[in-house]
Amino acid sequence: MKRVAYYKGCLASLSAKELDISTQALSPKVGLELVELETVTCCGAGDIHEAEPDYYLHLNARILAYAEATGSDTLMTVCNVCTLNLRQANFQLQGDERLLERVNENLAKVGVPEYRGTVDVRHFLWMVAEGEGYDLLKAAAHKGLKGLKIAPFYGCQILRPSKLLGFEDPDRPSSLERIIEACGGEAIDYPAKIKCCGFPIIQAREETALGELIQPIEQAKEAGADAIVTPCPLCHLSLDAWQSKLKKQTGKDFQMPILHLSQLIGVAAGFHEAELRFKRHVVSVEPMLDKLSV
Amino acid sequence: MQVGLKIWRYDSTTGDRALKEYEVDAPEEATLLDCLDIVKDRLDGSLAYRKSCRMMICGSCGMRMDGGAVLACKVRMYDMASAGHAPVISAMGNLPIVKDLVVDMEPFWQKFKAMKPWLQPGYDQPPADEEHVISQERMNVIHKESLCINCGCCVSECNSMESDPEFLGPQALAKGMRFVGDPRDAAKTERLDQYSAEHGIWDCTRCYFCNERCPKGVDPRDAIAKLGAEAMKAGIDEDMGAKHAKWFVHSAKTTGWLRETELVPKTQGIVSSIKEMKFAMGLAVKGKVPPPFPPHVAEGVKESRALFELVKEQGVDGALGIVQGERALSRLEHEVGHAAGGGGDTGVGSRDQADVSPGEEPTRKRGGE
Questions:
Q1: Same domain, A116 and A129
Q2: How far apart are CA A136 and CA B224, in angstroms?
């Protein structure tokens, strides 16, 4: 068992609870012992980085400090945006002694433990896409996804900027494909799998965002996908919940089921609704599950 | 070495389009541009592409290699040729194609000019026989933005611009930051006002393709974030994008977690939110709209609030908050051609960082040690 500090972030704590529930259920089967961080806050997304960048750095330093205090060398995330924000802050602190010193002085003043820079921020996807996690995943996914065509959707901030993420080639990633295949499904290839879902501007610039959102859904549909899987709850929310707006705008009713990565593996591992919580999705996952049970 | 290329040929006058394969014998140190020159000299004189300096400073030879924008004069072909990979070469995206690899840069220049990319001096004249001296620290704020060579690689895959062609885009906005952050410029407020309008700062979808593609380490997305930070610091925060960002700050210091349900009215205003009620109800029945009361409060929210008050006093605000982290990040390199990637196209581009880090010695180029 690998003991990791678990940072679930805002969405998995609230509107995407199904992501937290399925991740917690799956983790022991893929060799992960999750130590939940109770006292931490939002990472600020790109928003606090833009509105109050110094506060962004301190908020993330605080999360990293509490992760370090668990004694684990890994802070595991389940969201692309959290991953980029925390990794960016971490590299800034690890690579600049003077900056780390200033931030630590501030953390000390408000009673936060010192951050020594020993934590590595890793997304759940990376924990199960290679090494021991991958071997355990293959064993856990005994029920398989036979006959299902799954479209991987990476989202942006787990690939780019690659100097801060760096797990795989940002233009030709393959981790989700490897996992889909290890689960017994067929991975669909389509150009928009590395593009943006539009979520960061879905409230401020809805029309522009919908122009981005339609691409992966339409392309996955054309390629015959039974579902899309994503490692990011923000991508999940826009792909799942905003499909109704695409229908209103374009007249196209895609009815494309969207799965969190932990849910997809969970299905292959034979999990039930109690661990998967598909009832919390806006677009029904039933057609995909029906096809699997035939 | 033998270099294979698959080049998308296109003629805008006829609409003819074809993917043609070429193979050339090139020296081992050849760049993509060198190979195109060989194609043009020896195989097909009708191939059209732009070039000038051949040393990554004029910004003429931006084009796509395997779908991603590169400067042709920067990409060495040795690794790809050794792996037997023949890359697909095509014109940059988000700009109309004139012929083959040549795009019409006019829409790009229009956005560039809209930024008023010249200094509007507002500093006091120095005494006679003295220079107007600005500290290195203050110039570091726009160090990266100053490296831009207007090649258009950042625009090529910009996801917001694909959806909204009027979006000013990463190049123009990075150029805008180059002047907003310049202590000699007197038009900062007017600029921030202008850049905050529709199709400006808040159109950016944060896809980070611009940072990934820039061959000079400008990191345009970071420049856009700096503009956002400067605009909000100056109180130019009426755009929905700015309100959205402000609600995150408010959430972090009041409950610690994002107050999702209140985000829509706080961003769009009450009237728009009421129009969204039907949509919101559809989400609410699925548990996607967490009740705002009682709020979900993080245990450590007192620390989070105290941190906010503390850093506010220290004045590392606006763009400075982002600039302070650049020193450490400039030492990191972009990950390229990961072995696990499919297709065997290793060594695509050498998208390393800026030639010079702020206030530091020039970094060594990859392979140049």
A1: no
A2: 42
